[in-house]
Amino acid sequence: MTSPITTSPTLFPAVSRLLHWLMAAMILAMLFIGIGMVTSPDWYHWLLSVHRPLGAAILVLAALRLLNRQLNPPPPLPRDMPFPLRVMAHLSHIVLYGLMLGVPLAGWGALSAGGYPIVLYGSIHLPPILPHSAALYTALHLAHEILALLLFATFLAHLGAALAHALVFRDGVFGSMASLKAAAPPDPASGVGGD
Amino acid sequence: MPAQTTDSSARYGLAALRRASWLNLGIVAAAVAGTAGAFAYAGGWIAPHRLSQGRIIDRFEQVNGQHPGFRRNHAKGLCFAGWFDGNGAGERLSKAAVFRAERTPVFGRFALAGGQPYQADMAATVRSMAVNFALTDGEIWRTGMNNIPVFPVRDAAGFYDQLAASKPDPATGKPDPARMAEFLAAHPETGRALTLIKAQPPTTGFADASYNSLNAFRFVAASGASTPVRWSMVADDPLQAAQPANSGSADPNRLFDALESRVERGPVRWHLLVTVGQPGDPTNDATVPWPADRERLDVGVLTVKSVQGEAQGDCRDVNFDPLILPDGIAPSDDPLLSARSAAYSESFTRRSGEPKSPSAVQLSSSQLSSNAEGAPR
Ligand code: HEM
Ligand code: HEM
Questions:
Q1: Which of A40, A54, B252, B260 could be a cystine partner for B120, CB 3.0 to 4.6 Å?
Q2: Counted domains in chain B
């Protein structure tokens, strides 16, 4: 079987790749920590103590990543990728960014509205971002749960799409993010990307 | 009819799927399905019998009935406000600001154990005091304490089974003795704890009762030294004589009403005594008392200045999670602590989203108005 790849893809900037894989691991861990802690009373406290600072770190990194995306734009998607696939890729990336920011903000907001201290470590706290209110707490707690489940669903779609690029489409999109190379010679003939 | 396939449809169309090996398609599907399955397992959907906090709170609701808006346990209660004057003695063991020789504002809640918000006050019902300390460095400490010497169960599973065993039989209105006997046979530690609890008859009211943390914690000093501790709020008020049985105390709120009139007469005080554990004292079993000769360090005085109904005070929309701790107080290895934290969160989340009904304990109008200013919301 011959590879259908006819163009050599460009790579995501190295900073972008580093941020991507670091955050991928953190977010996947957080989804499991979150769902595990609300169903395992014995581990609840320990997991929640990790959940808050790790979630806050994701929020900071997501904001940095959005900034980095403006400074170091991703390589364009392959020119021959069909329009519906392009739209799906772009939409799913917008949704992922929205959730990477929205999920931790909702968690922070829920604890604020619930009248909790938001302990990161020891005596280091986050300030409340909402007034103490049972109604706001209910809304934000629910939003955090629903958005986190949506983030997981979007993550699954993203994982499936990434692996499909690698194993089915074989168009170099996967390698543009998964490469360990420091940089690639830009190839004006084709671009790859979309993160 | 693929007469002429463009680059694009060859790479992205059905042709791509046909060209891809079953192995590669299988890898994509397995990775997605495997991740989803692991998530479902972690979330308890594949093991629905795991004792999650949701199931613990479901059981409170099965045993006590549905009382929307109220705490699932310690449902009947009253808010209070006041302050804590640390005397500096606690700094030896803990670096938390609350133990400095300074004043810390507090609010809290007195309550009766049980998930029935309209139960009639009875001396035998476990009474509780929960306190929120707003430390001067911005940290928060919350603690919930009961007026019994030890806790009847040592872990969440024990609590869960005890709840079921103590559910009143609809026919008699009393727990089924056979089920209780079965539970006690399986939990000898509960039998031993109940003997200790019965040996210490309850005081007559809220103001003359002392309240115990029951769970062990660790105090961490500025030096890093960590000490196992339990603590108690020990009443300054002398023991009140029990009211004669026929003194017209049919008032279903008589304990709360007595507290209200006690507070109207003047501030009520408790000393916070920290029991210092020694190596070998069990920190992971709240059913077992520590030896009576352990040092009890007096670290300051709690003053309760006013009481408010739940709707007017600060205590209702707050979770007295026992693991809301300042730097300088840490959890012990007691498994009840994390389980309490999880269950209280579930109870708090459910009740926060439910419409509120008036609490059973309503204060006389004079208290209500005087406290409206005292308790800004
Ligand atoms: C990307 C970051 C985050 C992810 C992926 C995440 C994920 C989750 C998940 C899956 C749950 C379980 C939802 C449920 O079924 O009830 C959860 C619960 C929760 N998370 Fe997060 N979370 C994140 C960030 C945060 C942050 C920054 C905070 C607070 C500072 C936070 C606080 C909470 C709280 C308080 C709960 C509920 C605990 C309870 O109900 O007892 N989360 N999170
Ligand atoms: C696994 C064992 C336990 C379970 C499942 C449990 C459950 C609960 C629940 C659901 C609440 C209501 C929380 C809320 O909605 O804010 C509560 C309140 C309370 N519990 Fe526990 N509890 C346990 C062990 C203990 C222990 C060991 C103590 C020892 C002192 C204790 C003392 C209290 C107090 C004082 C309150 C009332 C707090 C307030 O007034 O808001 N509980 N408990």
A1: B252
A2: 1
